[in-house]
Protein: Cytochrome P450 family 4 subfamily X member 1
Amino acid sequence: MISTAAILEFSSPAQQLFQFIQDDNMEKLEEIIEKYPRAFPLWIGPFQAFFYICDPDYAKTVLNRTDPKSQYVQKFLSPLIGKGLVALDGPKWFQHRRLLTPAFHFNILKAYIEVMTHSVKTMLDKWEKVCSTRDTTVEVYKHINLMSLDIIMKCTFSKETNCQTNSTHDPYEKAIFEVSRIVFQRLYSFLHHSDIIFKLSPQGHRFQKLNQVLYQYTDTIIQDRKKSLQTGVKQDNTQKRKYQDFLDIVLSAKDENGSSFSDTDVHSEVSTFLLAGHDSVAASISWVLYCLAQNPEHQERCREEVRGILGDGSSITWDQLGEMSYTTMCINETFRLIPAVPSISRDLSKPLTFPDGCTLPAGITVVLSIWGLHHNPAVWKNPKVFDPLRFSKENSDQRHPYAYLPFSAGSRNCIGQQFAMIELKVAIALILLHFRVTPDPTRPLTFSNHFILKPKNGMYLHLEKLPEC
Ligand code: HEM
Structure:
């Protein structure tokens, strides 16, 4: 058992950790990990401790158990994503996971490549207009976010929203950004753990307002589909599809007693997949572009690879995506350096013993810091350096299987990771075919670390339009 004395001794990083949380200062976290490469605790008020881990053996121990998700995280996030797959536990989670897995079948994912290509080209057309007269600096994150929203709406809900060109979708995106910040700050503010105090606070008021925006957005998706099913009038592109989309699966799902998902379950799953399916992918695409802008030699090598495989990129196939080995290594290295999901957490339902003999009591919240694991100098040589060759086959074979976990691992791993990888490859390949990206030194980048690691004040990159091949 880790003794109170040990926890007190460990408590020295608490100050630094609060700075990391309050200022989104990821470097502070790195300093702590250099000192404590396995684990360290953080007290939130007098009763609640979060036990951070960043060691592959520790991660393996936690991910091979079936402890529930952290009750605080789930409780505070539930107005945002309800009790969908991310938040569920136990038999209900198992049932939903089994029912929803077919939505990510290989044949369905293959059909998405064309949809994704179309959405990326819409974004590139916008960039071309911005750059038509001269090379220029563009805040790319907002464009990428809307592009990713467009893709998830079309792929999982078969809904044509034109959100990339129609600014009525901006309030939803802005609400997500702000709500995530409020929830994250609530998590680390002991007083705001109380529902009454939080509801009466200015953040609590704001939270409720923003929540209505999010609820309404999801509800419209569900009601539109229900209407079209009732009237037989196809309001979306359901008639063109040869496959069941995610919404078809959720609306027709039956449990072992033959009962359909309740309205609350449907709402939870739709808001979960809407958020999980676009927010983290948009952040990841932006981080890959950022890393390639910082490392022009790797950008050039990816572009050569993509040109050799895709030509002018007029159409993209599944096999071609599989051939992009260098670009995939750059994507993987970006996931390591800047993981879009920087941490995940579990509440221990029973005591836990790590392989080195350290034990934790039941009830402790364990936070697996994916950022910490990926930046751990005891695991990675020169962890701050962008080096895609870490992911070559020879170099990967040597690695601990739990050293690199951008999509987590085990039974609760990311259900959408294949979807995400396809979207990332299509987006990065097409962007590199049409533009060279370089950093804008006048606009240094800062992190916003609120469940998803995003650029805090946007991401400004210099875009240079390339001649057509
Ligand atoms: C680069 C993009 C993505 C990253 C980095 C990512 C990362 C993760 C991680 C780390 C988890 C584990 C969370 C935990 O244990 O608390 C997770 C779970 C999940 N992800 Fe993703 N994800 C991405 C894209 C997607 C996409 C595109 C979808 C859906 C279309 C999706 C849906 C989910 C769901 C539903 C879960 C919960 C799975 C379960 O508990 O059974 N994610 N993701």
The longest strand covers residues 39-44. The chain has 19 helices and eleven strands. Residues 67-341+406-465 form a domain with the Cytochrome p450 fold (CATH 1.10.630.10).
